[in-house]
Amino acid sequence: MNTNEEIKEMVREKYGAIASQPKSENASSCCGTGCGCSGAEFSVMAEDYSRLPGYVADADLALGCGLPTEFALIKPGNTVVDLGSGAGNDCFVARSIAGATGHVIGIDMTDAMLEKARANAEKLGFANVEFRKGDIENMPVADGTADVVVSNCVMNLVPDKKRAFAETFRIIKPGGHFSISDIVLVGELPRNVRDEAALYAGCIAGAQQKDDYLAVIRDAGFTNITVQKEREIQIPNELLARYLSIDELREFKRNRVGIFSITVYADKPLSQGGEEA
């Protein structure tokens, strides 16, 4: 079994490679990591950002699984932190809402992604958008910095999700909130799918059960936990057949195991006594 540090290094290497790929290659593969789907027209994650204000095509690598900024209730002047900011796509959309008086901080652990994001921000002349190198389990962000936290299909890649959501709680101001899109499971995936490294780095094998995922958020201290959007990910047989035998595939379908993209909202209470935002 891989250790947490080995998993992080694997993810870092995969997403470093993705940073140099065109969006079309990411979107046409099963998970943006070159694991391939035998030509299938299939993208597990991506939703269309192009209609959103602030959209920057050069920052869109088709790696998300939702549109968290659309649900994040960002206001002009807010400080927004994006966890796993990649090339800056969600940061630039958030900046269009927070405006010139707002401040947007992207956190990413991959040098190639940070370089791409910073180049995009410089080209756009956005002085109030910055990108910091860091680990979501130990963020380079002061306590109570963010009015709003967003993240797009990143928490499923973090080995220690309890630590990651505790850190998210720490950096949000009392009365602030987050809106996070992610991949979760309903029912158990076969072990050989969960253990496949290419899927872990790009798609589903790092995902938690939906109920467990929401419990981690609750245990971190968040309140008013709400699933804002949910959609089932339809995985074609030709992808599953790469990892499952015929009998395993039949069992998978019979058990109706579900893989879902969810966008979750939660508040940080105004006080530790439980008063809600």
Question: SS-based structural class?
Answer: alpha/beta
Question: Mind telling me the CATH superfamily name?
Answer: Vaccinia Virus protein VP39
Shape, please?
globular
Strand order of the largest sheet: 3-2-1-4-5-7-6
CATH topology: Rossmann fold
Overall mean pLDDT stands at: 81
**In this structure, how is the largest beta sheet organized?**
7 strands, mixed
What is the number of helices?
Answer: 11
**Total separate domains:** 1
> What is the distance, rounded to the nearest whole angstrom, between the alpha carbons of the first and last residues?
41 Å
The beta-strand count equals: 7
Low-confidence stretches: 24-43
| CATH class assignment | Alpha Beta
β-strand amount: 15-25%
Portion of residues within helices: 25-40%
Radius of gyration from the alpha-carbon trace, in angstroms: 18 Å
Give an overview in words.
This protein has 277 residues and is an alpha/beta fold. The protein has a single domain, classed as Vaccinia Virus protein VP39 (Rossmann fold, 3-Layer(aba) Sandwich), CATH 3.40.50. The protein is 34% helix and 21% strand. It has eleven helices and seven strands. Strands 3-2-1-4-5-7-6 form a seven-stranded mixed beta sheet. Strand 2, helix 5 and strand 3 form a beta-alpha-beta unit. Helix 6 crosses helix 9. The longest helix is centred in the N-terminal third of the chain and has 15 residues. The N and C termini lie far apart (41 Å). About 7% of the residues have low confidence.
